[in-house]
Write a structure and sequence with these properties.
Layout lengths: L6 H18 L14 H11 L1 H5 L4 E8 L3 E9 H7 L4 E8 L5 E9 L2 E6 L11 H11 L10
Antiparallel strand pairs: 1-2, 1-3, 3-4, 4-5
Helix pairs in contact: 2-5
Length: 152
């Protein structure tokens, strides 16, 4: 569930709103490159440690896009619905979701040539998504956007 009504959730929404306003006024934040060799580590770390993804499960996602010139680019945390609905370049969106029993699990969404695919990763009882099996599942999920990525 979302924590938008609580301080620990609303602050992430406020940060995103401020970033959108700044970008609209011509003061966009830089989008650093993500080396292909680090992509799996980057996503695994975000799924394991990012407080914004943990507090806003199913609502916010860490997004990496594929720029034809710059390669893989960290597009920061964005609303998941925007990533899925707005279109744009090939991208990877990593988020956490929960089922009706409260089990938390990662989901990797990929956008390839406008088509969205969803890949659910098995939940971990210790909520660690940086282990070997999770990395392998992340690598499989992102290959449509970033072919040749190793399991890390």
């Amino acid at each position: 569930p979302s924590n938008s009504g609580a301080v620990h959730g609303a602050r992430y929404n406020a940060r995103l709103l401020a970033q959108r306003v700044a970008a609209g006024l011509g003061s966009a934040s830089p989008h650093p490159a993500v080396p292909a060799a680090s992509l799996i580590d980057f996503i695994a770390t975000e799924l394991t440690e990012a407080p914004d993804l943990w507090h806003q499960r199913g609502y916010l996602a860490r997004v990496v896009t594929l720029d034809p010139v710059a390669g893989l680019v960290d597009d920061g945390v964005q609303p998941l619905s925007h990533v899925l609905d707005a279109g744009g370049p090939d991208a990877i969106a990593a988020t956490l979701e929960a089922d009706g029993s409260g089990t938390i699990y990662p989901v990797i969404y990929t956008r390839t040539r406008g088509m969205i695919a969803e890949r659910t990763i098995e939940p971990d009882p210790l909520l660690r998504y940086d282990g070997r099996e999770a990395r392998r599942a992340i690598a499989e999920a992102v290959r449509s956007v970033a072919p040749g990525i190793a399991a890390g």
